[in-house]
Amino acid sequence: xxxxTARLTLLIDPIKKQVFEEICNLRDQTPSxxxxxxxxxxxxxxxxxxxxxxxxxxxxxxxx
Length: 64
Fold this sequence. Notes:
It is a single chain. The model has no long low-confidence stretch (mean pLDDT about 90). The chain has helices at about 15-25, 30-45, 50-55, 55-64. About 0% of the residues are buried. The radius of gyration is 14 Å and the shape is elongated. It is mostly helical and about 60 residues long. It has one domain. About 65% of the residues lie in helices and about 0% in strands.
């Protein structure tokens, strides 16, 4: 896991938020955990080699 954190604020429809939180709870995950995983997947899928090189080692290993 990364050593530092940065806040990401987004707006979402209240009903989608509620359903998302319910699903996360059923899967014993926090919404933050799920969003961080979605971001990691997106970065690994669409990031350039130069961008991926800047990732912390633990995130690079997650791609392999």
